[in-house]
Amino acid sequence: MRGKGCLFINKVEICGVNTSKLPVLKNEEMRVLFKQMQSGVLEAREKLIQGNLRLVLSVIQRFSNRGEYVDDLFQVGCIGLIKAIDNFDLGQNVRFSTYAVPMIIGEIRRYLRDNNAIRVSRSLRDTAYKALQVREKLISANASEPTVTQLAQELQIPREEVVFALDAIQEPVSLFEPIYNDGGDPILVMDQISDDRNSDEIWLESITINEALKKLNDREKHIVSLRFFHGKTQMEVAEEIGISQAQVSRLEKSALKQLQKYI
User: Fold this and answer.
1) 3-state secondary structure (DSSP) of residue 17
2) Helices first, then strands: H and E counts in the chain
3) Rounded Cα–Cα distance for residues 237 and 99 (Å)
4) Which H helix or E strand runs over 205?
5) Over 80: is that where the pLDDT of 208 sits?
6) What are the residues facing 18 on neighbouring strands?
7) What is the pLDDT of residue 79?
């Protein structure tokens, strides 16, 4: 039975696979099987897949809050695992799991992106990719990061179009995403972010912002609150208050200009 967003500890069978009885291969067993597979032994490849399905299970738990069918994520993760097995090089001094996990994650992210209910239009995506190409060209020429205005001038399109296009292709990064692991405790994105919330400067700035917010009208205040205090995207804000994303963008810019006058 397919379960959407179910707890993995309670799910024994996924895609007909009894997850409680999956084999676990030791490193030496893995090396032997890889050598056999590369010599043309098909059974070795099958054993490598079966022996690493627990790796897929551990990865798909990261995506358990997306509301996707567990079976679907498992199947997609298995595709990533098979690609990793077929492309793994024993000559590289790296553990198979270190090599395979990013490939499994990448396969699942592609699946989630391609099946996302919110589609990014082809024209918007093309604009974003052109902007990125121009950015690389300007960095090479000037040895500095170009502004959005410079990108817009190079592309001969309004600055707002560049902003919308680049925003549209950005993927959110979890604070709990591991960015480095040497075999011990992983270092997460959140570990690399400083926390100055208790400094005197931030405390005084907070008071100033609160005073400035009182100068905005109710709608502007609501949008600023949703965007910068609750971390919602412009699309989410637009859906919540019943206006278009373009209107949210205009109101947000107007509110920020007002705030700048008082801060």
Assistant:
1) strand
2) 12, 4
3) 39
4) helix 200-213
5) no
6) 13
7) 92
